[in-house]
Design a protein that fits this description.
By secondary structure, this protein is α/β, with parallel strands linked by helices. It contains 5 helices and 7 strands. Residues 49-182 form the Thioredoxin domain.
Length: 182
């Protein structure tokens, strides 16, 4: 009986140590991913239009057939998310994008999701994004991607009612932090 108790105690200790190590590895991977994006785009250089810049003219058509232009972003805050089919982290960021939209749509915030179609098919992203948001799919250097100078994915922009970039970031929360400051 004492052997069984000792074995269970040792096994419990090993499982707890494994759990602690797993949490440490996950935290390190998240840090590594953020550092990798920062290194890829340069220390102080954002991978697109800088905050304070007015969005240049663009025209695109959503998957529902609605025309979207830079002028159509006038008047309300708009959360714009850029996702790529070749990006491993993009699918993971979709839930936080949707949550941000749902949480602020009552306040009048609009959304625009731009999916850049690469080598992989867009099906996983299309299934994850809800039908009720404006969704633009672009292959290659599309009009919206060029206008925002998007070069890293996922990347999010908070566009003000005057069509200027008010916040941007790799995480949706980085964009929305600008709302708390104003």
């Amino acid at each position: 009986m004492t052997i069984v108790v000792a074995a269970v105690s040792v096994l419990t200790l090993l499982v707890l140590m494994n759990l602690i190590l797993t949490f440490g590895v996950v935290r390190k991977l998240r840090t590594y991913e953020a550092e990798r994006v920062a290194a890829r785009r340069g220390a102080d250089e954002a991978p697109g239009l800088p905050v304070g810049t007015e969005i240049p003219a663009f025209t695109a058509t959503t998957t529902a057939g609605v025309e979207v232009t830079a002028e159509s972003l006038d008047g309300k805050l708009t959360l714009v998310g850029f996702f790529s089919t070749d990006c491993g982290a993009c699918l993971q960021r979709v839930p936080s994008f949707i949550e941000a939209i749902r949480g602020r749509s009552a306040e009048g915030m609009r959304s625009l999701a731009v999916v850049i179609v690469g080598d992989k098919g867009p099906e996983p992203l299309l299934e994850a994004l809800p039908d009720d948001i404006h969704l633009v799919m672009e292959k290659g250097a599309g009009d919206v991607e060029v206008a925002f100078q998007a070069s890293a994915f996922p990347w999010f922009y908070l566009v003000g009612p005057d069509r200027t970039i008010r916040g941007d970031g790799y995480e949706v929360e980085q964009c929305l932090n600008e709302l708390a400051r104003t």
